[in-house]
Amino acid sequence: MGKNYNKLKNTLRSLNLHTVCEEARCPNIGECWGGGEHATATATIMLMGDTCTRGCRFCSVKTAKNPPPLDPEEPYNTAKAIAEWGLDYVVLTSVDRDDMPDGGAEHFAKTVSHLKERNPKILVECLTPDFRGDLKAVEKVALSGLDVYAHNVETVPELQRKVRDPRANFEQSIRVLKHAKEVQPGLISKTSIMLGLGETDEQVYSTMKLLREADVDCLTLGQYMQPTKRHLKVDEYVTPEKFKYWEKVGNDLGFHYTASGPLVRSSYKAGEFFLKNLVEKRKTKAI
């Protein structure tokens, strides 16, 4: 598991922080949290509570129209905990908070700011909601000092209404990703697609092309797994060979990196991929 694993777990409990890694019972938790001699220790913190205002049909997170109010101490506590962990890379994500005027954008921005104050070297990725398409909220996060702006389109355009909450759609998600880079061109942008929901190969390829045309830098593709019987059924278990194929397609289309595999999740070893890619890019520029 690595020496960081137990340290992270204990601090999370004491500060009442949530991680997606635990909430989603991610199969890669030991690998990401543990880090190691040649690995990058990564964790994904879930801000703004564990109750979402939306009800996507693939997701097992609790839903409610009016979740509990935000903890004003959470940005500070999160930064304090992460600074003590010795992480190289942290992913900050959240539930959707449509009950709040800015969707929680200020909460994200404060957390990033506190983190960078305590550890300027740590790499921060924010995996955000779509903020109902509010581009001012997107700007707030994009200008907060983060390194990677992530927002997941989740599936191909043709399956959006079947898979996601009616308040979400592909075009709105693309606008979020594009706007983040328009206001902060140095950002790396990232998104994720689940496979096995009934999409065709043509639809996947077309979606990947649209994402590259929107200047998305990084893409992850993973297998959809039905969390409970109340959620969408798995239409297909995609073979490891097909995932490898999509990884090659992603590289050919020009994504900075494409992580594709049955167990890949949007935050899977994010730091390792990011750092490896960054080092390679710098070496190329130096030659």
From TrEMBL:
Its cofactor is [4Fe-4S] cluster. [4Fe-4S] cluster 1 binds at C21, C26, C32, S267. It holds the Pfam family LIAS_N. Keywords: 4Fe-4S, Iron, Iron-sulfur, Metal-binding, Mitochondrion, S-adenosyl-L-methionine, Transferase. [4Fe-4S] cluster 2 binds at C52, C56, C59. It catalyses: [[Fe-S] cluster scaffold protein carrying a second [4Fe-4S](2+) cluster] + N(6)-octanoyl-L-lysyl-[protein] + 2 oxidized [2Fe-2S]-[ferredoxin] + 2 S-adenosyl-L-methionine + 4 H(+) = [[Fe-S] cluster scaffold protein] + N(6)-[(R)-dihydrolipoyl]-L-lysyl-[protein] + 4 Fe(3+) + 2 hydrogen sulfide + 2 5'-deoxyadenosine + 2 L-methionine + 2 reduced [2Fe-2S]-[ferredoxin]. One of its GO terms (molecular function) is lipoate synthase activity. Its EC number is 2.8.1.8. CDD domains: Radical_SAM. It comes from the Eukaryota. Transmembrane segments: none annotated. GO terms for biological process: protein lipoylation. The keyword S-adenosyl-L-methionine applies. PROSITE patterns: RADICAL_SAM. Belongs to the radical SAM superfamily. Lipoyl synthase family. This is Lipoyl synthase, mitochondrial. It comes from Columba livia (Rock dove). The lineage of its organism: Eukaryota, Metazoa, Chordata, Craniata, Vertebrata. The gene is LIAS.
